[in-house]
Amino acid sequence: xxxxxxxxxxxxxxxxxxDGGSMFQSAxxxxxxxxxxxxxxxxxxxxxxxxLLCSGEAVVxxxxxxxxxxxxxxxxxxxxxxxxxxxxSSLAAAGVTPExxxxxxxxxxxxxxxxxxxxxxxxxxxxxxxGAEYVLQRAQLxxxxxxxxDEAEAFITEDVAxxxxxxxxxxxxxxxxxxxxxxxxxAHGHTAGQQYLVVHDEKRPLLFPADVIPTAAHVRFPWFxxxxxxxxxxxREKRTxxxxxxxxxxxxxxxHEPRFAWCIVEREGRAFSCQDHPACR
Length: 281
Description:
16 strands, seven-stranded mixed β-sheet, 21% helix, 8 helices, alpha+beta, 31% strand
């Protein structure tokens, strides 16, 4: 898929299976179960996606999935499964090696978005993309280095410390252009300094909203998740982003939607709907 100066690849990096209600904290189960059928233990399997953007000058990885270095306890608690899809297999399918990645843009440092930035080689924890510049909002790094108690489990302390000390970080202080045709926006409801990405294109820009809009069901309803640090702010930020997506005809790629990867957002009065893109089928 071509968008602006980039060839764009959606990367399937695995799945997570955990309590469905936690993704729809503000909604009764009867409402969200119409979209996501839970198992006998109330769990739902969600996608974990990243994005690969390739141009003549740059090979950009946006988010890295859960990776291979999670503790057994954390992987079991969230049902992390990389047996069918992984970051490594998806990059290989796109014809890209880790050494060819020039930039790693992290929407935020929660383990399901940044766990893949590290690997263990001969028992030593190392950055997985040795030639890359890592791009992150400064506010998110600060949040990860000194996390709130109810967010601490989402950050992998060793990974954050390694990234902070590696000398490969470009820290941003708000929205702006990361590379030609690639814009970062900032939202704070899910976690301080989360960034979402817009790839500019004259006909149809591409939006990667990360956990501002984690699934297509979050488009239609004012739902927030149990993992949002400020649910009310998260809903306001989501609405602002949905307005932009509808007005500017964005193709929206979801990081956690299990049914399809992307859609086009449309207005329905004061609400929004999600029309799944034919290429998803």
